[in-house]
Amino acid sequence: MLELLFCSLLTVYPDYLYRHYAQGKRLGHEITFFTVWYELRIGITACLMLTVTLITIVFYYHPSTTDVTSFFRTVTILSEGPGRVKEVFVANNSSVEAGAPIFSLEDSAQQAAVETARKRIAEVEAEFVTAESELAAARGTVDQAEGAYTQALEEYELRKKLLDEGSAATSPREVERLGNTVDSRSGALETARAQLKAVETKIGTALPARQETAEAQLAEAEAALAKTVVYARVDGIVQQFALQPGDIVNPVLRPAGVLVPPQISHGYFQAGFNQLSGQVIHPGMIAEMTCLSQPFVIVPMQVAAVMPFIAAGQFRPSDTLLDVQDRARPGTITVLLQEIFEGSTDRIPPGSKCIVNVYTDNHARLESGEVGFWQGIYLHIVDTVGLVHALILRIQALLLPVNTLVLSGH
After folding, report:
1. For all residues of the chain together, what is the average pLDDT?
2. Same domain, 360 and 299
């Protein structure tokens, strides 16, 4: 409508003035509703053509969209395993800091597992004490076996020497008996030494390994016990949280709530423009934004980035072939906008519905002198008609409360 009124001032209105004042025709007499088309047909046709041209230039070189918002991430509050709620530490809509407990699950089984692991460690420590006694006994047995073996060997050597010298103080049978005794004592000594080595291996290898296993089981049980308490990993506000003791929580089917952390990319907004705008929009362009959560305010913005893809083209591999006709709805060009003046978007809550105009600026091209005369005129027109879109945005900002509260019935 605004473009039509503007174009009529350049076509229909001058035509009417010429016929009224130059030709002397009067409104309501010679110029009536039935003769207006015949009398002003040239002006009306030119007005319509100029309106269509102006609207095309305005919306092509100065794109606009109502699909603008500031996305934010939420963190799901859930436990690492299913269980029944034992205690709730926070309330819905409360602020929590990272590391603060949110709720806990029943932990009787985990407590029992921790106690069992501690008992196993104590059992291994007791076996260390017993093994030290066994080690002392094994060493005594070795010493005793060595003494008996040495005594038997000396007596055997003495009897064998006397027998070799032909003494009547001994006999071959006695020497043979002493030789068997030496062999027996030698076997007993080897057995004692083997038992000593087994005890030393038990103390140096087996028991430490069992102790490490018991300690690992204790650590595992304590980790499982710690998982029964759910902590906040980031600062944020708890939302949709209505847990009560006795409720069942399942990380797959029944999360406990949502944690909304502070916005990391503050001052940034995402806008979706039609695909024709992809030929015009580029980083660095100036934009203006007004939001439903802060009407009557125009916020200056700047294009920070233009995504080199269209989200509608994404797909997830599956066992079904993708049919292109299922993607009949055209996707939009995703544009990242950032505030020009720091703090100008602080009062706009994340997720607000906004309207954005992006303006083409050919000032640098005109100053470079690389464009011709007629192209320069055209670029001046393109930059000038951006004022129409800026005026439309301000009218929209004024009418946002009216459209929302009155016309929409909400």
Report:
1. 83
2. yes
